[in-house]
Batch of 3 targets.
Target 1
Amino acid sequence: MSTSSLVNEELQPSPTPAPPRPVFAVAMVGLVFAVVVSLVMVKAVLMLRHFNHDGPVSTTVGVILVVLTLYAWYPAAKALGAGQQRASLLSQDQLVPSRRIAARGREDALIAMGYAAAGLIVALLLIIVLAKDGGVATTFFALHPIRLSFNQVIHAFWINIWVACVSEVLVLILGLVVAIVRMLPGRAGAPLRMIAMVYCDIFRAIPAIVVIMLIVFGLPLTGVRFFQTMPLTWLGIIALTLTYSAYVSEVYRAGLASIHPSQSAAARSLGLSYTQTLRTVLVPQAVRRVIPPLLNDFISLQKDTALLSVAAISEALLVAKLWEAQLFNLSPIALVAAFFIIITIPQARFVDYLIDRDAARRAGK
């Protein structure tokens, strides 16, 4: 570097630091939003009390909801106070503390908006459910139809769970077999690879409800005594197994393909056969990698057991539809939806846990 450039840099004045961004405007937006949401929640609570004839339960729930929406006022007020502190510090030429206060104030304002937005969603849902004197609530959440149908629906729901569990075991086995066949090496495996590929393409293309109707109604019509004497539930299991094995085989195949070729080469160099390499090296690693997507497919399979109602299999949805036709109310069907939610949400959270654990393991935590 030349002497002239050093002199120019020494003589050049340092840039003036920019002041922190203002906080007052965003704080006012957060406070106004919080106040509006509280008013909307009050309206929703009044509708709830009117629908429940000013019952003690609705009053208690309403008070809790209004108090929760008032919490958004607190960070908004803190943001306004941070705006005043920012102005005071700037007047004293204290840029660094003013930047800290301004950043904290903007964060408080955003927190207020976030909590207010959550309260607004809850309030709007209540207003929609209670509109037209509770038309939505009486259509989907009436307690009397739920009480009448509960015992029969929950007993029928065990059929959904049993079908899902048996189908999942069969899908795990058949899907792995199809994935391995699709990855057979050499010209000798080409015909089998083609058959496995055609199977996957066909059953991924046909909707599950069509497969169920073809299997459950079609196989007994073939005249084969084995299919004629088979219970309808087992025919439904076959239909779901054929459909989901095509999807699961692709999950397995992605897991096998994700393993570095050096793993297979090292196993073969140690004298292991292709079958031994699959059994002891490739498949165990692939299964660990594909557990989260496998569980996602099983969640979908659990929900698709409700499609068996089109084949007159007495699972939960079919029983609920019979009650709906008798009571002219959709609450029994909403009860079925609640059962599926209860068993599906823990599975979804377990999938998230496995994904987070795998990410932490890969990061070395």
Target 2
Amino acid sequence: MNEYRAIRQRYSLLDLCRTPDLATEVTLQPIRRIDVDAAILFSDLLLPLEPMGVKFDFVQGEGPAIENPLRTEADLARVRRFDPREELGYVLDAIRQIKHELGSRAPLIGFAGAPFTLASYAIEGGHSSAFAHTKALMYGTPAAWHSFCDVIADVVGDYLVAQIEAGVDAVQIFDSWVGALNAADYREFILPHTRRIFERVTPLGVPTIHFGVGTGAILTDLRDAGGDVIGADWRTPLDEAWARIGFDRAIQGNLDPTLLLGPLDRVFAATDEVLARAGGRAGHIFNLGHGILPTTPLEHVQALARYVHQKTRG
């Protein structure tokens, strides 16, 4: 969005995250221009890393970069717990401000990163394709790995509770890179820690969403880890994904975000297929199968939102 790009010319991504007025403005920008059904808190899933002792910054054109990646058992052991109400209070201030601005216009979704994704960023030093350093520690030092993930789970659980207390209407746990694991490794090394987060949050009574990318092989395991809503990316047809997850859970997804770079007739045809596979069953949240791409025409997103509402509103 041009409005967002104008702000980014003046402020860094971390400036936007750490300044409640700016985070509020960026959160509200899509609500003003696109017919979406909820606002999503503008923040970044890496924010808890710095108070844990893992410093990072964003490198233009490359994404997040960790100052000193965690590569040994001793590195993992140095990571500390913290109180998000103190260390991440600016996020909570932004939530309260956004809720005031939104009023009854739309609910607000908060979020946090899940254990594997946060751990892999901290260990790899940034984005990775093979996750070699992460898996080497996971396989080679399982006790240290589980202790590390316990810390992440405690921090993320407290952080989401604080977001709920500040006023978010739902929370989403992003495990963006967990598709790098097979089902057996997910159940051994990740599921107990992610489940711990959901067990911490679920009693508070807000809807919970659990999302990962490339998770077709572990959708049932994501369900077992927790979440009222399980996200599915575009690689698995929605009806097949929902059957694996179980119809006692809601599903979010799952249009391929790259379709929005093409002609609208193709976007609408693919949207029709997603909706047909949902079959009118209650509990489907129409969404993209992953994040929107920066080069996506805003007009295509606006048209998609209008089209979905035309097709689904009684």
Target 3
Amino acid sequence: MLDVRSISKTFNPGTINEKKALSGLSLHLDPGDFVTVIGGNGAGKSTLLNAIAGVWPVDEGRIVLDGTDITSLPEYKRAFLIGRVFQDPMMGTAPNMQLEENLALARRRGQRRGLRWELTKGEREEYHERLKALGLGLEDRLKAKVGLLSGGQRQALTLLMAALRKPKLLLLDEHTAALDPATAKKVLELSDSIVREDRLTTLMITHNMSDAIRHGNRLIMMNEGEIILDVRGEEKARLTKRDLMDKFTQLSGLQMENDAMLLSK
């Protein structure tokens, strides 16, 4: 479903602020893969997601999604293929618009604009059922402004919007980092449910090693713009936080006395 082929990205090249963020990184995701991504500060996690999403062009390499080379596609054209949820619950939704209006915008993402964009009765019924499935009581607030929702409710709505058109790829960029533990757990459960039911191929950056182990079928660890660990299946299921810390020390050559280095954003 996704082939990232030897991509590199350097910021501020030729200056004293030059930073090599990605170094010939390659990654292959099969359809339905749910991959969690961990790594320390400056490891290249967000740079990888931004490169895939088209926020900036890569210097070298190719990005192929479902057989289509999207390397040169601008971000707005990739939005039809890719859903994304950001760390900040305030991003991804329009606060002064109603819940149903936000959902309608997500439903029409990538379509040609015209005069027949009014919500239909069928759409409202669909949105009611989809919101009801979240278990947050939002199904009876279709007319409410999104800005009135709590951070957790808003992030759950953003997640639903990102997955509404069943994108080829779902990007979750530390999407629970700004939430309290109980709300973060609920949003992660919703993420699991949506990914599983819609069989979405997913990349999720997380700052929480336990979440990285608990969720998804595959885990990759990044350091200095490269993937230094890639585990899946039973091997991933057997991992512990101590295992990850030891592997980070072994593979990166850096000593880590606690998990602060690996969990830093």
